Amino acid sequence: MQEEETVRGLGTIINIVAVILGSGIGLFLKNGLKQKMQDMLMQTCGVAVIFIGISGTLQGMLRVTEGTIETKGAMLLIFSLVIGGFIGQLLDIESFLDSIGDKLKSMAHVKEDNRFVEGFVNTSLIICVGAMAIVGSIQDGLSGDYTMLAAKSILDFVIVLVFTSGYGIGVMFSAIPILLYQGGITLLAIAAGSFLGEELIANLSYIGSALIFCVGINIAFGKRFQVGNMLPAFIIPIIYSIIA
């Protein structure tokens, strides 16, 4: 009897469906929420994202050895953010993301929606850049295990529901980056196989969590960081892993 073939990439599909459904419900609730309530929901969600980023970063950097707390990866984090930010600023990735948001805004015929681009960019960064997105996509590609992405889908459902009530329909279009980003990682994992080591995955995860922290700051307190320009930070751990 032949073993049942594992369907790889199913986790990303589940995630996309969750984002679309959550956004749809958020749009339905948007008209029933006053502006002050929308602002409060955005601020509280921003604070939650900040602590998610902090916990993910510390989880990757702290180790308890014989009752003593030790840190690791501090220099890698610094070099990744500094060099990645330098490259991102040269490429002006933030403006590129904004231009994509403007094009989608025009395609959706919502030019009067001033928060479309902000909603698209912020939501895309939150639900794409993070430990669960990276690790879950890799697991899905290597073994067809989509459980982590399924759990992430539940979290994303709640996030986009709240965000759509504040930002509007731009949040729904974050399903496109999920398809490209998580789907791309899954395809890479299928092609690379066991080449992706646990240490590389861990490094990518906690650096992604550091970027999530910056996104949380932007949501709670207004735009302070150009997180899009920090995305090349993911290149540094890969280079470090190859050299090491």
UniProtKB/TrEMBL annotation:
The chain crosses the membrane at residues 12-29, 41-62, 74-97, 117-138, 158-180, 200-221. Keywords: Membrane, Transmembrane, Transmembrane helix. The keyword Membrane applies. The keyword Transmembrane applies. This is DUF554 domain-containing protein. It comes from Candidatus Galacturonatibacter soehngenii.
